[in-house]
TrEMBL record:
Keywords (A to Z) from UniProt: Aminotransferase, Lyase, Pyridoxal phosphate, Transferase
Record carries keyword Cell division: no
The keyword Transmembrane helix is assigned to this record: no
Stored Pfam families: Aminotran_1_2 (PF00155)
Enzyme class of the recorded protein, top EC level: lyase
Name of the protein this chain belongs to: cysteine-S-conjugate beta-lyase
Lineage of the organism: Bacteria, Bacillati, Actinomycetota, Actinomycetes, Kitasatosporales
UniProt GO MF annotations: cysteine-S-conjugate beta-lyase activity; pyridoxal phosphate binding; transaminase activity
Ranges where the Aminotransferase class I/classII large domain occurs: 54-397
SUPFAM superfamilies: PLP-dependent transferases
The enzyme's E.C. designation: 4.4.1.13
Named cofactor requirement(s): pyridoxal 5'-phosphate
Amino acid sequence: MTFVVNAESAESTGSSEPLRLPGFDDLDRDWLRARASVKWHRPGPDLLPAWVADMDFPTPPAVTDALRDAVERRDLGYPDWPDGSPLRVAFARRMTDRYGWSAGADRVREQTDLIQCLQLILHLATSPGDAVAVQTPNYPPFLATLSTMGRLAVPIPMQDTDEGWRMDFAALDASVTQSGCKVLVLVNPHNPTGRVLTRPELEELAALARRHDLLVISDEIHSELVYAPHRHIPFASLSPDTARRTVTLTSATKAFNLAAIRCAVTHYGPDRLLALRDAQPPDLYGTVSPLGVVATEAAWRNGDAWQRELLTVLDRNRRRVEQVLRAQLPHLRHHTPEATYLAWIDARPLGLEEPPVERVRKAGGVLLDGGSPFGLGADGFLRLNFATSHAVLEDILAGLTRAFEADV
């Protein structure tokens, strides 16, 4: 692929047509629908899917080449990892190269995915009935995990301001004090709003965590999908105190479209938690697949050029979503995401009698996500996945417009 720098939408570049990139904008819909993965398979042939957080783009060539090489070498035996997988060093190198954070490789452990990472930390650090602070709206499997594990979710609502979504630190302070919770699940960059916390905001959060002696479980899986001028800062990188109280969760799966490889990493800041984790039976929580390690290493080592093109396409698409909403659906409230490939859209001003997800499905032929599974205050919201080709996105936006055209 040819690297394209800082592409923008047609209206901002002055060109008559938006940029198209091979490998991203030449998607074959028969190929998309023929895949067995849930995004296109579950909705069936009559709906355009823009719901689950998978991208439509093919796997990065660096990853497919590495996987093909492993299979062709018949290198599928037991791995020789006496000191842990190569991901430990690869993660530490990635954090240094990307963010200047010296994350110790010896504090990294592998898991199959981020949900398992969260569940393991909650199992080790909390007990049923314990309160856990969490931003709302939030990733539904995280909220479902708290419920299933019997932890009391203490919602910290994100604030919708004229400048965009903001974290309410006063509400967090008050809620932590009232509930006595000692754990905060931080999602930054935030799913579903796309907000990226600034350094001053993170420092305020770190001071609050120190004041209340909070363990911070920081989900940073969207960190490599941030749009300039915004910048991701790992929470644990702020100070030695913050590092000692932070568990960082991440994976290459989101930024390189590799969900099925089932491979994630956890960086343990607290000594006690790392010791508890290592005292568990070694295979109690499963072991990561060697092919998952191969794919992740390849993505982090050789996938940056592909990822830059990806961000060019996603930046164009997020601007296109904003353009259509402003021009054709001005009653829907929306802030252009600072990260992720997810748009969080407030349909409450329309006063619909049915959930907007259902309206878009029936009247627009598009399957979106949203509503109550995202937590307190999420009813009336839509989450739209714009990680697709220009042509597919245009049809998704046409369906969205069609669904609400009688209401605006």
